[in-house]
Each structure stands twice: as C-alpha cells, then as structure tokens.
Amino acid sequence: MRAFSSFDLASLGDSFVVLAVAFVLGTVIGLERQYRQRTAGLRTNVLVALGAAAFADIGMHLMGGEGATRIISYIVSGIGFLGAGVIMKEGTHVRGLNTAATLWCSAAVGAFCGAGYAAEAILLTGFVLAGNTLLRPLVNHINRKPMDERVTEASYRVHVVCDPSAVADVRELLFRELEGANYPIREIEILSEGEDEVELAAVLVPNTAEPDELDAVVAALGQREDVASAAWTVSTTN
C-alpha cells in the first residue's frame, strides 16, 4: 500500500515534534483566551495552531521549503474566513476583533512550527501573550479617560424632538443651522416616531468638533416653538 511504502520513521518523528510544539504553544495562547471567556478559547486556538502546523508540515514533506511557502500562503487567506466568523456587530459596536486577531496569530505560530522554526514560534507566542495581557492595563486606562471632542475624530449626532406635523420644517431647520455652523450633514435619521412626537437625528460627517459651537446650534434649535427638545451626542467611529 502506498501509505506504508512511504513510511519513514525519521519523518514521522519530525512531524510528531512539530505537532507537539504547535499543540503546546496553541494551548498557552488558548488558556489566556479561555480564562477571559472569549469566543475562541482553548480548543479553538489549539486546533488552529495544529491545523496550520500540519498543512505547513505536509508542504515540507512533499516539496520542501517551496511547498511550505505555497501552503502557508493559503493558510494566511483561509484563516481570515475563520476569524470573520467570530466578529460580531452590535449596533455601533464591533466585537471579536481581538479574538480574530489572536486566531490569526495562532495560525502563524502553527505555520512557524510546521516550517521547522520552533524557536520563532515560541518567540511569537510570547509576543501574542504580551499583546493580550501586558497591554490590557494601558487599554483600560485609555478607555477610562473622558473623550475630548475637540481632538477626537468621532461620530456626532444632533437630536431634535418635535411634533409629527412639524417634521418637514424641523428637518429643514436642522440643515440650515448646521450648515450655517459649517458642519456638513451626512444624513438625517428618524430615531423614534409616535403619535405625539418624533425624534430626528442629524448625523454629521465624521470630523472634529467644538463643543461650544454644537451647544450654540442646539440652543438655537431649542428656541423654536415647534422643537420640544434638542441635544447633541458623540461616539467614537469604528
């Protein structure tokens, strides 16, 4: 049988070492992800590292370095589909980007192992763990800082609540006031619509803004009799 005619104990030993190293390093990365209850945890990262190592190892056995290079190029593109599966969008928030990036790195660790670069795989594993752990306090510190609207490129909305019969006039008023303040409008949304009132939101083109200028626009809108209330909000862009 062809499967046994190509049997090589030394080659099998090399494959065992390659897969064992990929398994251990994938476990190290996956443990940190599992501890933090991420979507792609221990088993997923181990399997990604093992799969990448196995494919690269096949290329090495069949065509040497050239074969491994070809297969690794497919791993790079293929792992993108797996990573896309853990990315979820909830409203304006996107979740799973860090998990997808970690899977990408697990595949790179496996590819290093499969190509015979165990030391480089260990080094990459250390950097992946550092990125997911050592940088976390810095990220939390930055996220806790209040947003400075004057220097942050963000998404701004000017909200207006009015009577349903005045929607057309208020829409025109929004355009006039914001264009007069040199804030271009991307679109005007209807956030809620009821029998007694309608809430409109003018979405501005992402840019930096001066809080005092938006406050003045809101104050001018609030003085109109057909406007029940007016306010502005800001959120980070994706």
TrEMBL record:
The UniProt record lists the MgtC/SapB/SrpB/YhiD N-terminal domain at 19-139
Q: Which InterPro entries match?
A: MgtC-like_C (IPR048640), MgtC/SapB/SrpB/YhiD_fam (IPR003416), MgtC_SapB_SrpB_YhiD_N (IPR049177)
Q: Which GO terms describe its cellular component?
A: plasma membrane
Q: Which UniProt keywords apply?
A: Cell inner membrane, Cell membrane, Membrane, Methyltransferase, Transferase, Transmembrane, Transmembrane helix
Q: Biological process GO terms, please?
A: methylation
* Cellular compartments annotated: Cell inner membrane; Cell membrane
> What membrane topology is annotated for this entry?
Multi-pass membrane protein
Please list every transmembrane segment annotated in the UniProt record, as residue ranges: 12-32, 44-65, 71-88, 100-130
The residues covered by the MgtC-like C-terminal domain are 156-232
Tell me, in a sentence or two, what this protein's role is.
Virulence factor required for growth in low Mg(2+) medium and for intramacrophage survival. May be involved in regulating membrane potential by activating Na(+)/K(+)-ATPase.
Family per similarity comment: Belongs to the MgtC/SapB family.
Its recorded name reads Protein MgtC
The species this protein belongs to is Telmatospirillum siberiense
